[in-house]
Amino acid sequence: MFERILFATTASPTCDDAAKVAFELSKKNKSQLSVFHVFGIPTRGFSTFVRDIRTGEIEEPDENYTALVVEEMRHTYEKFLPTYDQIAIEAVTGEPATEILRKARKDDVNMIIMGAHSRAEDIGATRHRAITGSTMQRVARAARCPVLIVSRPCVTCWSYFANIVVGVDFTKASDSAFAFALNVAKEIGCKLHVFHCIDLSTEPALTPPTQGEVEERVAKARKKMEEKYISKMGDFDNYTADIWEGMPYVEILKFAREHKADLIVLAHHTREVDPEQALLGSTVEQVVLRSACPVCSVNHPDKVDVTPYGVRPAGEGE
Q1: Do 3 and 50 belong together in one domain?
Q2: Are residues 120 and 19 located together in one domain of the fold?
Q3: Any idea where the UspA domain is (predicted)?
Protein backbone atom coordinates (compact mmCIF):
# COMPACT_ATOMS: atom_id res chain seq x y z
CA MET A 1 0.00 0.00 0.00
CA PHE A 2 1.45 3.37 -1.06
CA GLU A 3 4.62 2.42 -2.90
CA ARG A 4 5.80 6.04 -3.13
CA ILE A 5 4.90 8.79 -0.65
CA LEU A 6 5.75 12.49 -0.91
CA PHE A 7 5.97 14.36 2.38
CA ALA A 8 5.76 18.06 1.51
CA THR A 9 7.09 19.95 4.51
CA THR A 10 7.90 23.51 5.53
CA ALA A 11 10.67 22.00 7.67
CA SER A 12 9.16 23.81 10.65
CA PRO A 13 7.35 22.63 13.82
CA THR A 14 3.96 23.14 12.12
CA CYS A 15 4.69 19.98 10.12
CA ASP A 16 5.83 17.81 13.05
CA ASP A 17 2.49 15.96 13.33
CA ALA A 18 2.44 15.33 9.58
CA ALA A 19 6.08 14.18 9.72
CA LYS A 20 5.29 11.52 12.32
CA VAL A 21 2.50 10.11 10.14
CA ALA A 22 4.64 10.27 6.98
CA PHE A 23 7.57 8.39 8.47
CA GLU A 24 5.43 5.80 10.31
CA LEU A 25 3.21 5.14 7.30
CA SER A 26 6.21 4.79 4.99
CA LYS A 27 7.98 2.46 7.40
CA LYS A 28 4.90 0.27 7.87
CA ASN A 29 4.38 -0.07 4.13
CA LYS A 30 8.05 -0.14 3.12
CA SER A 31 7.34 2.86 0.90
CA GLN A 32 9.87 5.08 -0.82
CA LEU A 33 9.52 8.36 1.08
CA SER A 34 10.51 11.72 -0.39
CA VAL A 35 10.88 14.50 2.16
CA PHE A 36 10.47 17.60 0.02
CA HIS A 37 10.85 21.28 0.93
CA VAL A 38 10.42 24.33 -1.30
CA PHE A 39 12.29 27.10 0.42
CA GLY A 40 12.12 30.22 -1.70
CA ILE A 41 10.31 32.06 -4.46
CA PRO A 42 12.40 33.44 -7.34
CA THR A 43 11.91 37.12 -8.09
CA ARG A 44 10.92 38.34 -11.53
CA GLY A 45 14.27 40.09 -11.87
CA PHE A 46 17.74 38.72 -12.49
CA SER A 47 18.24 37.43 -8.97
CA THR A 48 16.42 35.19 -6.54
CA PHE A 49 15.88 35.41 -2.83
CA VAL A 50 14.96 32.85 -0.23
CA ARG A 51 14.04 33.07 3.42
CA ASP A 52 16.28 31.02 5.69
CA ILE A 53 14.28 28.30 7.47
CA ARG A 54 15.96 28.98 10.82
CA THR A 55 16.81 32.67 10.92
CA GLY A 56 14.05 34.02 8.66
CA GLU A 57 16.64 36.20 6.92
CA ILE A 58 16.83 36.78 3.19
CA GLU A 59 19.56 34.75 1.48
CA GLU A 60 20.88 34.33 -2.05
CA PRO A 61 20.42 30.67 -3.00
CA ASP A 62 23.18 28.62 -4.62
CA GLU A 63 24.32 25.00 -4.51
CA ASN A 64 26.06 25.47 -1.19
CA TYR A 65 23.01 27.08 0.40
CA THR A 66 20.71 24.33 -0.93
CA ALA A 67 23.05 21.72 0.54
CA LEU A 68 22.87 23.58 3.86
CA VAL A 69 19.05 23.51 3.80
CA VAL A 70 19.05 19.77 3.09
CA GLU A 71 21.44 19.25 5.98
CA GLU A 72 19.13 21.25 8.27
CA MET A 73 16.19 19.09 7.13
CA ARG A 74 18.20 15.95 7.86
CA HIS A 75 18.99 17.31 11.31
CA THR A 76 15.29 18.19 11.90
CA TYR A 77 14.13 14.65 11.12
CA GLU A 78 17.20 12.75 12.31
CA LYS A 79 15.23 10.96 15.05
CA PHE A 80 13.29 9.12 12.33
CA LEU A 81 16.23 8.29 10.07
CA PRO A 82 18.06 5.49 11.96
CA THR A 83 15.01 3.22 11.76
CA TYR A 84 14.10 3.85 8.14
CA ASP A 85 16.45 3.98 5.15
CA GLN A 86 14.17 4.24 2.07
CA ILE A 87 14.15 8.00 2.23
CA ALA A 88 15.27 10.85 0.01
CA ILE A 89 15.56 14.43 1.27
CA GLU A 90 15.36 17.21 -1.28
CA ALA A 91 15.09 21.00 -1.22
CA VAL A 92 14.38 23.23 -4.20
CA THR A 93 13.65 26.88 -4.92
CA GLY A 94 10.36 27.86 -6.52
CA GLU A 95 6.66 28.42 -6.00
CA PRO A 96 5.72 25.79 -3.37
CA ALA A 97 2.46 24.36 -4.79
CA THR A 98 3.86 24.23 -8.33
CA GLU A 99 7.03 22.44 -7.25
CA ILE A 100 5.16 19.97 -5.02
CA LEU A 101 2.78 19.04 -7.84
CA ARG A 102 5.69 18.77 -10.29
CA LYS A 103 7.55 16.48 -7.91
CA ALA A 104 4.42 14.34 -7.35
CA ARG A 105 3.93 13.92 -11.10
CA LYS A 106 7.60 13.20 -11.75
CA ASP A 107 7.80 10.50 -9.07
CA ASP A 108 4.28 9.17 -9.74
CA VAL A 109 3.57 9.14 -6.01
CA ASN A 110 0.62 7.32 -4.46
CA MET A 111 0.02 9.89 -1.73
CA ILE A 112 1.04 13.40 -0.68
CA ILE A 113 1.21 14.14 3.06
CA MET A 114 1.09 17.74 4.31
CA GLY A 115 0.40 19.85 7.37
CA ALA A 116 -2.62 22.15 7.25
CA HIS A 117 -1.03 25.48 8.11
CA SER A 118 1.67 27.90 7.14
CA ARG A 119 4.00 29.51 9.63
CA ALA A 120 3.00 32.94 10.90
CA GLU A 121 6.21 34.41 9.50
CA ASP A 122 5.80 32.87 6.06
CA ILE A 123 5.21 35.24 3.18
CA GLY A 124 1.47 35.65 2.64
CA ALA A 125 0.47 33.80 5.79
CA THR A 126 -1.62 36.70 7.08
CA ARG A 127 -4.36 34.49 8.47
CA HIS A 128 -2.22 31.93 10.24
CA ARG A 129 -4.41 29.13 11.61
CA ALA A 130 -7.59 30.95 10.59
CA ILE A 131 -7.68 29.18 7.23
CA THR A 132 -5.84 26.24 5.75
CA GLY A 133 -2.56 27.08 4.07
CA SER A 134 -2.80 28.34 0.50
CA THR A 135 -0.19 25.83 -0.65
CA MET A 136 -2.20 22.96 0.81
CA GLN A 137 -5.35 24.24 -0.91
CA ARG A 138 -3.64 24.44 -4.30
CA VAL A 139 -2.06 21.01 -3.96
CA ALA A 140 -5.34 19.39 -2.83
CA ARG A 141 -7.13 21.01 -5.76
CA ALA A 142 -4.79 19.81 -8.48
CA ALA A 143 -3.15 16.62 -7.18
CA ARG A 144 -3.96 13.43 -9.05
CA CYS A 145 -3.35 11.35 -5.94
CA PRO A 146 -4.95 11.49 -2.46
CA VAL A 147 -3.65 14.26 -0.19
CA LEU A 148 -3.44 13.40 3.51
CA ILE A 149 -3.66 16.52 5.71
CA VAL A 150 -2.48 16.24 9.30
CA SER A 151 -3.08 19.20 11.58
CA ARG A 152 -3.03 17.50 15.00
CA PRO A 153 -1.18 14.57 16.57
CA CYS A 154 -2.36 11.21 15.19
CA VAL A 155 -2.58 8.81 18.12
CA THR A 156 -3.17 5.72 15.96
CA CYS A 157 -0.83 4.59 13.24
CA TRP A 158 -2.43 4.10 9.82
CA SER A 159 -2.16 0.30 9.95
CA TYR A 160 -3.98 0.22 13.28
CA PHE A 161 -6.98 2.29 12.27
CA ALA A 162 -10.28 0.92 13.58
CA ASN A 163 -12.75 3.38 12.04
CA ILE A 164 -12.71 5.35 8.79
CA VAL A 165 -15.43 7.90 8.03
CA VAL A 166 -16.05 8.85 4.40
CA GLY A 167 -18.30 11.84 3.75
CA VAL A 168 -20.22 11.59 0.48
CA ASP A 169 -22.53 13.91 -1.45
CA PHE A 170 -23.21 11.74 -4.54
CA THR A 171 -20.87 13.73 -6.84
CA LYS A 172 -18.16 12.25 -9.09
CA ALA A 173 -15.52 13.54 -6.70
CA SER A 174 -17.27 11.73 -3.84
CA ASP A 175 -17.20 8.53 -5.89
CA SER A 176 -13.39 8.72 -5.88
CA ALA A 177 -13.29 9.47 -2.14
CA PHE A 178 -15.57 6.51 -1.46
CA ALA A 179 -13.49 4.15 -3.62
CA PHE A 180 -10.30 5.17 -1.83
CA ALA A 181 -11.87 4.82 1.64
CA LEU A 182 -13.35 1.42 0.81
CA ASN A 183 -10.02 0.12 -0.53
CA VAL A 184 -8.16 1.34 2.56
CA ALA A 185 -10.76 -0.22 4.89
CA LYS A 186 -10.50 -3.54 3.05
CA GLU A 187 -6.69 -3.45 3.07
CA ILE A 188 -6.43 -2.60 6.76
CA GLY A 189 -9.46 -4.58 7.88
CA CYS A 190 -11.25 -1.79 9.73
CA LYS A 191 -14.82 -0.50 9.80
CA LEU A 192 -15.99 1.96 7.15
CA HIS A 193 -18.66 4.51 8.01
CA VAL A 194 -20.36 5.99 4.93
CA PHE A 195 -21.90 9.32 5.93
CA HIS A 196 -24.04 11.88 4.16
CA CYS A 197 -25.39 15.14 5.58
CA ILE A 198 -28.43 16.83 4.09
CA ASP A 199 -27.41 20.48 4.07
CA LEU A 200 -29.96 22.59 5.95
CA SER A 201 -27.56 25.49 6.54
CA THR A 202 -28.68 27.27 3.36
CA GLU A 203 -32.42 26.97 3.99
CA PRO A 204 -34.31 30.30 4.25
CA ALA A 205 -34.66 31.24 7.91
CA LEU A 206 -38.29 32.34 7.53
CA THR A 207 -39.43 29.23 5.66
CA PRO A 208 -37.45 26.27 7.00
CA PRO A 209 -38.40 22.82 5.66
CA THR A 210 -41.10 20.92 7.48
CA GLN A 211 -40.29 17.65 9.21
CA GLY A 212 -42.11 15.81 6.45
CA GLU A 213 -39.95 17.48 3.79
CA VAL A 214 -36.79 16.61 5.70
CA GLU A 215 -37.86 12.98 6.05
CA GLU A 216 -38.62 12.85 2.32
CA ARG A 217 -35.12 14.16 1.51
CA VAL A 218 -33.60 11.62 3.90
CA ALA A 219 -35.48 8.80 2.15
CA LYS A 220 -34.25 9.97 -1.28
CA ALA A 221 -30.68 10.25 0.01
CA ARG A 222 -30.83 6.78 1.52
CA LYS A 223 -31.93 5.35 -1.84
CA LYS A 224 -29.04 7.12 -3.59
CA MET A 225 -26.60 5.85 -0.98
CA GLU A 226 -27.76 2.29 -1.58
CA GLU A 227 -27.41 2.67 -5.36
CA LYS A 228 -24.08 4.52 -5.51
CA TYR A 229 -22.14 3.13 -2.58
CA ILE A 230 -23.63 0.22 -0.67
CA SER A 231 -24.20 -1.75 -3.88
CA LYS A 232 -20.43 -1.54 -4.54
CA MET A 233 -19.37 -3.02 -1.20
CA GLY A 234 -19.21 -6.56 -2.62
CA ASP A 235 -18.42 -9.06 0.10
CA PHE A 236 -17.18 -6.32 2.45
CA ASP A 237 -19.72 -6.14 5.29
CA ASN A 238 -17.84 -4.21 7.98
CA TYR A 239 -19.59 -0.90 7.38
CA THR A 240 -22.36 1.45 8.48
CA ALA A 241 -24.41 3.89 6.40
CA ASP A 242 -25.84 7.00 8.03
CA ILE A 243 -27.67 10.14 6.92
CA TRP A 244 -27.95 13.15 9.17
CA GLU A 245 -29.23 16.65 8.51
CA GLY A 246 -27.74 20.01 9.49
CA MET A 247 -24.58 21.96 8.62
CA PRO A 248 -22.31 19.46 6.81
CA TYR A 249 -18.95 20.18 8.45
CA VAL A 250 -20.49 20.28 11.94
CA GLU A 251 -22.30 16.99 11.46
CA ILE A 252 -19.23 15.29 9.93
CA LEU A 253 -17.13 16.32 12.92
CA LYS A 254 -19.84 15.21 15.39
CA PHE A 255 -20.24 11.88 13.59
CA ALA A 256 -16.47 11.31 13.47
CA ARG A 257 -16.12 12.09 17.16
CA GLU A 258 -19.04 9.83 18.11
CA HIS A 259 -17.58 6.93 16.13
CA LYS A 260 -13.98 7.50 17.24
CA ALA A 261 -12.76 8.01 13.67
CA ASP A 262 -9.06 7.51 12.96
CA LEU A 263 -9.35 9.00 9.48
CA ILE A 264 -11.88 11.17 7.62
CA VAL A 265 -11.98 10.91 3.82
CA LEU A 266 -13.69 13.64 1.79
CA ALA A 267 -13.80 14.88 -1.76
CA HIS A 268 -12.00 18.22 -1.92
CA HIS A 269 -14.99 20.06 -3.30
CA THR A 270 -18.72 19.44 -3.08
CA ARG A 271 -20.07 20.54 -6.43
CA GLU A 272 -20.04 19.07 -9.91
CA VAL A 273 -17.27 21.29 -11.25
CA ASP A 274 -13.94 20.65 -12.92
CA PRO A 275 -11.60 19.63 -10.08
CA GLU A 276 -8.83 21.70 -11.67
CA GLN A 277 -10.97 24.80 -11.30
CA ALA A 278 -12.67 24.11 -7.97
CA LEU A 279 -11.63 25.91 -4.83
CA LEU A 280 -11.12 23.85 -1.71
CA GLY A 281 -14.60 23.23 -0.39
CA SER A 282 -15.55 25.12 2.76
CA THR A 283 -16.72 21.86 4.33
CA VAL A 284 -13.33 20.22 3.81
CA GLU A 285 -11.50 23.29 5.05
CA GLN A 286 -13.51 23.45 8.28
CA VAL A 287 -13.15 19.71 8.86
CA VAL A 288 -9.36 19.93 8.31
CA LEU A 289 -9.03 22.78 10.80
CA ARG A 290 -11.18 21.19 13.52
CA SER A 291 -10.75 17.43 13.12
CA ALA A 292 -8.95 15.48 15.84
CA CYS A 293 -7.80 12.92 13.27
CA PRO A 294 -6.10 13.20 9.85
CA VAL A 295 -8.24 14.17 6.86
CA CYS A 296 -7.66 12.76 3.38
CA SER A 297 -8.76 14.79 0.37
CA VAL A 298 -9.46 12.76 -2.77
CA ASN A 299 -10.56 14.50 -5.96
CA HIS A 300 -9.52 12.12 -8.74
CA PRO A 301 -10.11 8.44 -9.46
CA ASP A 302 -6.34 7.98 -9.91
CA LYS A 303 -4.38 6.25 -7.15
CA VAL A 304 -7.46 5.10 -5.22
CA ASP A 305 -6.28 1.49 -5.51
CA VAL A 306 -4.18 1.06 -2.38
CA THR A 307 -3.05 -2.49 -3.11
CA PRO A 308 -0.42 -2.07 -5.87
CA TYR A 309 1.50 -5.06 -4.58
CA GLY A 310 -1.49 -7.39 -4.74
CA VAL A 311 -2.22 -9.80 -1.93
CA ARG A 312 0.74 -10.09 0.41
CA PRO A 313 2.03 -13.37 1.76
CA ALA A 314 0.94 -14.08 5.34
CA GLY A 315 3.10 -12.21 7.84
CA GLU A 316 4.69 -9.80 5.36
CA GLY A 317 4.48 -6.12 6.26
CA GLU A 318 3.56 -6.79 9.88
Answers
A1: yes
A2: yes
A3: 1-150, 163-295
Residues 121 and 171 in one domain: no
Count Cβ atoms below 10 Å from residue 158 Cβ, excluding itself. 20
- Determine, yes or no, domain membership for 292: yes
How many other β-carbons are positioned within 10 Å of the β-carbon of residue 24?
17
Asked if residue 122 lies in contact with residue 157, where contact means CB atoms within 8 angstroms, the answer is no
Predicted confidence (pLDDT) per residue in 49-93, tens digit:
666 655 667 777 778 888 888 998 998 888 887 766 789 999 988
Please give the angle made by the CA atoms of 97, 101 and 107, to the nearest 5 degrees: 145
Give tens-digit pLDDT for 225-260.
999 999 999 999 999 999 999 999 999 999 999 999
Give how far Cα 206 sits from Cα of 54, 68, 248, Å: 54, 62, 21
Pick from 109, 139, 123: nearest CA to 284:
139
**In which element (H, E) is residue 112 found?**
strand 111-115
Task: Tell whether 124 and 164 lie within a shared domain.
Answer: no
H or E element at residue 87: strand 87-92
